[in-house]
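Intended use. Records like the one below are meant for learning the mapping from a protein sequence to its folded structure. Do not use them to infer anything beyond what is encoded.
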Amino acid sequence: MSTKQIQEAYIVAATRTPIGRSVRGFFRNTRPEELLMAAIRGALAQVPGLDPAVIEDAVVGCAMPEGEQGFNIARIGALLAGLPHSVGGVTVNRFCASGLTSIQMAADRIRVGEADVMIAGGVESMSMVPMSGNKPSFSPAIFERDENIGIAYGMGLTAEKVAQQWKVSRERQDAFALASHEKALKAQQAGEFKDEITPFDVLERSPDLLTGELNLRRRTVSLDEGPRADTSLAGLAKLKPVFAAKGSVTAGNSSQTSDGAGCLILVSEKALRQFNLQPLARFVSFASRGVPPQIMGIGPIEAIPVALRQAGLALDDLDWIELNEAFAAQSLAVIDTVGLNPAKVNPMGGAIALGHPLGATGAIRAATVIHALRRHQLRHGLVTMCVGTGQGAAGIFERL
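Structure written out for the chain above:
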């Protein structure tokens, strides 16, 4: 096992909102603060004996922290959730690994003895703040050297580069995408997501064109909106490449743009005893590594071995792997190169079916892995993802 820290960091609560499709989905008019507020309250509800006044800080990931999710959304979300004024808040950005990085930062505060209770989470509304933000602006210096031009690539183009270099065929990508939907639908039908999801009440407004009155309807959403029962290989094969004229990456074998939030509560051993808390898992290790920006999708290839080494574990020790499916092409390249067991990778589907609310995904998938380990009586789980501009991140959790 890994070298013991000054003290261990334990996860005592882990939850998330359902994930909605961006722009047209059930969260299209829901502000990101409301999503984060719901996730924080959902996590607190799992530990009713914990005194919120002892929470040191709320660390929240957000990939595009501007517009509706600007102004340090971590602090705003913490206050709106009803936490005492004494609880701080900091928003962190490592693009797609923002939510996972928030867990690492919160755990580290505990592991070095600076805090006993921390909140970690992630939030993203891609309905309200688009993929590259409201005003993308690249430094001219990026284009002065060939090695940096990849910084300005769209994510889809980086997936095409990976598909070419790792020789991932269109057929394999589409088959992988279909499997993501099939696994997600099967898991939903079996109630496998129930433990990790905090249902959310959506208020829908629609005008009555005859009377001019505004109709209000409230409904509770408790399942991810992305999985599609009508997905088929034939349907996926008809889709045209969207990032390169003769490419293989389509909307069907790419992750869905989404809205959602996740939240975890981490504590020290002292807090476990003081508040009589039951640990769900231990945070074991974290690693981040850089790769060339133009092939950012292969980041996990570099990060996973480091996280395993820091944990004192071998690949075979991993029982459950949440590999963020930014694109089927990069997911397959990672699986092939690292030698991941496909049966252990995304057993309940991944971002192609479930969605990928950028900065929230790390926290959301951490909630998935923590509850899955407990449900299936497994021991070690991994959350890993590629990151825009060329990074990979990986975090390991142990069920207790």
